[in-house]
Amino acid sequence: MKFTQPKLPYAQDALAPIISPTTIEFHYGKHEKAYIDTLNKLIEGTEYEDMALEDIILKSDGKLFNNASQAWNHIFYFFQFNPDAFHEPSGALREQIEKQYGSFEDFKKQFEEAGVGVFGSGYVWLSKDNDGKLYITQAKNAENPMTQGLKPIMCFDVWEHAYYLDYQNLRASYLHKIWDIVDWAIIEMRYEN
Ligand code: MN
């Protein structure tokens, strides 16, 4: 098997009550695992077998793209959380957020609204371009902003499997509460690299 599912950097109950252990059990344990398992099956014996995951995403479409991108997106999503994290950005990222959105509070509001506005399954992404400019974008299904030449630095998964067990239909509540577990040190690192 080419790609392996990375272990979570925290305990299964560490994100509760924002994200429950049951949601982790299904979202990480079943959904993420299934994307990675399917990806491995699809690339076996093909030209994609020895490619980096990012290259597969950029060069594939259809079922392979969906599973490769979902594998990447979920690893990225689960690694941005830490229950004991700093709850606000600092440094260059903070400055850029305030420059473009006025304040951190206004940025959060816009990001939540973008997430609420995704029709059906998808993501709200925060990305940067080569000049460090930030972009809040909505994505359908498995879409990832790297296919538009941007560098993703944060994503909130708004597929129902990400929140339905904990918030039922209240996607806005999930998006509002999830800030409490975002590890801004990781988002800053992604921004600065
Ligand atoms: Mn998901």
Number of H- or I-type helical stretches: 8
What is the molecular shape?
globular
Report the average pLDDT across residues: 97
- Rg, alpha carbons: 16 Å
How many beta strands in the DSSP annotation?
Answer: 3
Oligomeric form of this entry? Answer: single chain
Which ligands are bound?
manganese (II) ion
- What's the end-to-end separation, in Å? 29 Å
Structural class: mainly alpha
Q: Helix share of residues?
A: 40-55%
Main sheet characteristics: 3 strands, antiparallel
Low-confidence stretches: none
* Strand order in the sheet with the most strands: 2-1-3
Strand percentage: 5-15%
What is the chain-wise order of helices and strands? HHHHHEEEHHH
Summarize the structure.
With 193 residues, this protein is mainly alpha-helical.
What would your notes on this structure say?
Helix 1 (21-43) packs antiparallel against helix 6 (160-167) and helix 2 packs across helix 3 (62-78). The two termini are 29 Å apart. Helix content is 49%, strand content 11%. The chain has 193 residues and is mainly alpha-helical. It has a three-stranded antiparallel sheet with strand order 2-1-3, sandwiched between helices. Strand 1 (122-128) and strand 2 form a beta hairpin. The structure holds manganese (II) ion. Residues 27, 31, 74, 157, 159, 161-162 line the site of manganese (II) ion. Manganese (II) ion binds next to helix 1 and helix 6.
